[in-house]
Amino acid sequence: MNQQNFQVYGRKIASFETSNWFLEETTIFFVLDGQLSVQQNLLTFPLSKGKLFVGNIHDQLILTNKTEQDSLLFYVEIDNLYLTSMYPNYVATDFDCQPEQNHLGKQGPIEEIRKYLCELFLAFYGNDKRRELLMSTALNQVLLWLIQYFSKEKTDRLTYIRNDKVKESLEYIRNRCQEPILMEEVASRLYLSSSTFSKLFKQETGQYFSVYLTQLRLRNSLKDLIFSRKTIEEIASSNGFGSGKTYRQQFKTYYHLSPSDYRKKMQQEKNWQRNPSSDQIERDCLECQDILGKFYYYAYLPKETSRTVATIEKHKSYQISMCPQPMNKHAERIIHVGALENLLELETFQQLEQLVEEIGVSYIGIHSLEVGNSHSYRLDHGEQLKIFSSFGKFDMILTYLKKHQIGLFYEISLQEYAMLNQTVKYQYLAFLEHVKTYYGESLLAHFKLSCTIHPIRIREGEKLYKQIAYYVHQISPAIQLGVSIPLRYPDYQFVSQKSQDIFLNNLVPQCDFLSYRSEPNLTYQSSDKLPTQVTQFQEYVYKEMRLISDKLKSYGVKHPIYLVEWNTLTSSDRYVNGTYFRGALILQEMLKLDRIIEGQGCWLNAGLYEEFTQQPRANFDGLILFHNYNGARPTYFILKLIKRLKGQEMAFSDNYLLLKHRDTYQLVLWNTKYFSPDLSKEASFLESQSVGVRIEIPEIPSKLYQMKRLDFNRHNGAIFYDCLAFNSRAPIDYEAHRYLAENCRPKMSLTDVEVKNGFQFECIIDINGIVLLELTPINCECEERRAYDLSRYCRNTYR
Q: Cβ–Cβ contacts within 10 Å for residue 799, how many?
C-alpha cells in the first residue's frame, strides 16, 4: 500500500468500537459505509456514509462507531515533505474541512474533493495500466481543492475572537504554557483586574481560564507521550504541570485513561494503522463486494455544474460590520408597453398581471395613443347613437389600473407633437376627459405626462410645453407634467446661456418632475473605445445620473428625476447579447440608482421593445422583462429580487448588501465584471472570471437559522443558455418554448445553519452572478409542534 507521496488504508470499525488516533501527517478520512462519531481536538461531530473530513498534523482523534452496524473507513495519509514541496506555505497551514461546512457554502468544493478522492481509491485498488498516473492526477486535484478552499493559517484559530485583549492573552498563553502561569499575571499584563479578565475570557472563548490552560497543556503533552521515551514526570514538567500526580489526574479527567494506558493504546493503534493485516481489505471486500462500485458512484456522481479549480480567478474575503442606515425606499417602476392598446393582447396583459403581483408596478409607460376607432363606433357615431365610446376598448385596462393604483407615464416628443394635426391633438385631450368622467380625479392623479425637448430647440419646446400644460390642467390639475433634461455626454452643459435660462427659469418652475434617458452603447460606439477600455463604462448610467443630479442641485433644482429608460453596455449582435449575462451589472446599478432617482423604466417584452424602439437603439438589447411565450429574462429576476429585499440596511458596498428585518437577515452577494461583450462567446474566459467569496458577519446572534439560498447566474435564470442546450438546427416548437419559460429561474436551496461566534459563509459566484441568502431564526419548540401536526395530518389524510 505504500506509495512515495501518500499511503492509502482501509479499515473496518466494528459496532461500538472506539479507536484513538494521533496524526503525524495530514490525513483525509472517508466513510464508505456506516456512521462514525469523530472527536477532533475536543470538537465532536458525526461522520456519516459518503462524508469526509481532513485531519491535520498533530491532531488527536477519537473515532467511535455508536451503531450496531460495522463501518468501513478509508483514509489517505499525505507525506509532509511532499506537501511542503508542492505547497511551501504548508508548514504554516491547517486544513479546515468538516461535513458541517456543507451548510456554509462549501458543498461544491467538498463534492469535488470526494470525487477525486474516490478516483484515487479506484486507481489504487484497480489494475489499470495507467494506475500511477491516475493516482498522481487524482491526488494533485484533491490538494488543489483543499488548498484553494480549506487552507487557513494556523493562527486563524483566533479569528473568531473579537476582543483584542483576549487575543493577546491567548497568544501569551500559547507561547508560555509550558511555564507556570497565573491568571492574575496575565490580567496584570493587560491592565485588567482578575475578575474583569476572567469574565471577558469566558465570554470570548466559552471556557474558564484554568480549563483552557489545562486543555492546552494536555494537548501539547500528547506528542511527548506518544512519540518520546520521556517518563510521565518528565512530560508533566516540560508541559507546565506542577507534578506527575497533577498531570495524571487531569489527563484521566479528560481522556478517561491514565497517561501510561493511553500511551500503550495509542502505540497499538499506531501499529495497526501503519501495518494493518494484509488480508484486512480483502476480507472487507469479500463482505462488501460492491466497494469499487460505491467508489465509482461517488467519483462520478452527476452534478448540476462542474468546474476545475483552476478556473477560479481569485478569492475575496469580507468581514462585514453592521452600521444601520436610514430606510431606503425602492424607486417607482415604469413598465413600457409602447401603446395602451397593446395591453388588450392576452399574453401581454397576463405578463402585466404577473409583474403587478410579483414585482409591483407604479406606471405603464406609453409612447402612442392612437385609438383606431372600431367599425361599430364609426357606424354608431355616424347615426348619432350614444352606445359605444371611442375609448371604450380601454375601459378594462383603465379599471384594472385604478384597482391596483397604477398610473400612466405618457412620453411625447414635442417635435412630433408640433407636426400633429388638430384632430389627433384633440384625441389626446378627449382621452383624458374620458378618464376623468368615468374614473375620476383619483386615477388622473396617477398620470404623468413627460415632454421630450430637443437640447438645441428649447425655445420652441417652451411654447409647446406651455400650450400642452394649459389644456391638460384645464381638464385636471392633478395630472403631473414634466420635461426631459437637455444635458448630454460628454460635458453635460446647455448648448447656450439662453437655453439654460429658458430651461431653469421658464420650464422647471412649471414642472412637477424631470425625465432622462441613458444609453451607454451609443456613447461607447461614438467614442471609438478599444475593448480593453470597456471598464471606463463601469456604472456609466449611475455616474451620469449622479453628475446630472448634482449639477441640477447646483442650479437650485430639486425636482424628482425619472430615468425613463436606461441600459448597460451590451452588443448589437443577437448571439453575443444572449451569451452576455449581466445580472450583477444590472442589480448593482439599480440598487445605486434607487438612491438618487424617483423612478426607472424598462420594457415589458422583447416584441414591444423592437416595435417601438427607434433605430439605431433597437440594435442593442435593452432592459426587457419577458421573452417569447412569457419566458422571464434576467431583468425580471433582478426586479423580483429587489422587491424581495426588506428591512433596515446594515451594510452596503460594491460587492454585497446586508439587510435586517426583525430577527431575519438578508445578504446579497454579487460578482460584477465589466468586459467587452464579444468576449462572452469565449466559454473559457467566462469560467475564468468566477470568484470565491468568504463572508464573516460577527454581529449576527448565535442561534439556529433556516438558510434559504438563491443562485442567479448564466446557468440558473438565463433563458438563452437553457436554449443553447437544445442542440438542433431546426427552430424549437411550442412545447420546447413553454419548457424554457417554465424552468428558467434562479436555483433555490434550503438548509439549517447553527450560528456560533458570528456567521461565516463561503461560495463561488459565477461571472456577473448573484447569491441571495436569507437567515430566518428557527423556534425549535414551534417547529417540533408543526412537524407533529403535519405528520398527524398526513396520517389522517392518507389512512
A: 5
